[in-house]
Structures are given as structure tokens and as C-alpha cells.
Amino acid sequence: MTVTSLRLRALTPQDEAPARRAHDVMAREGFEFLLGPGHDGDWSDYLGRMEDHRAGVGRTTRRYLVPTG
Fold first, then answer.
1. Distance separating alpha carbons of residues 16 and 7, to the nearest angstrom
2. pLDDT tens digits for range 24-53
3. ∠27-22-7 over CA atoms, to 5°?
4. First to last CA, the chain
5. Do 13 and 46 form a contact (C-beta atoms < 8 A)?
């Protein structure tokens, strides 16, 4: 049996183009890749809101992570 490790991380400024493309592809299939409102606006604002969510600012903590590597 082969064991593969998977490391997860938060989205970064460098992820904007691939994340938006993934969101568009998945939206055509009826799925939402980027969470919450505002994902189509300013990317740095979106990342800030996601960080607030992770930290539990103003609401329950939630995390959105992507694989590294």
C-alpha cells in the first residue's frame, strides 16, 4: 500500500487566476468552489474575508483550504 501525504493551505494572492478558473468550471457543473459572496470582486478583499472566517471574526470559525504541492 502506498501512503501519499496531502498538505492543505489557505488561498494566497498567487492563487487568484487558477482559483477563479476552477470556480468557473465547477459553477458550470452546479458547484461552488469559492465560498461566500464577493469572490468575484477584489481578490485581496476576498482573502481578507476568508481569513476573518478562519479566525472566527464576527461568526463561527470555518476554514477553506487547498492542497499544496
1. 19
2. 999 999 998 898 777 788 999 999 988 887
3. 130
4. 21
5. no
Amino acid at 51: E
Alpha helices per DSSP H over 1-69: 16-28, 43-55
Residue at grid coordinates 487547498: 66
Q: What pTM, to 2 d.p., does this model score? A: 0.72
Confidence band of 13 (pLDDT split at 50, 70, 90) = very high
**Hey, CA dihedral for 50, 51, 57, 62, is it positive or negative?**
positive
Q: What share of the chain is helix, strand, coil (3-state, %, to 5)?
A: 40, 5, 50
Main-chain phi, psi angles of 66, to 5 degrees? -125, 155
| Cell numbers found for residue 58 | 464576527
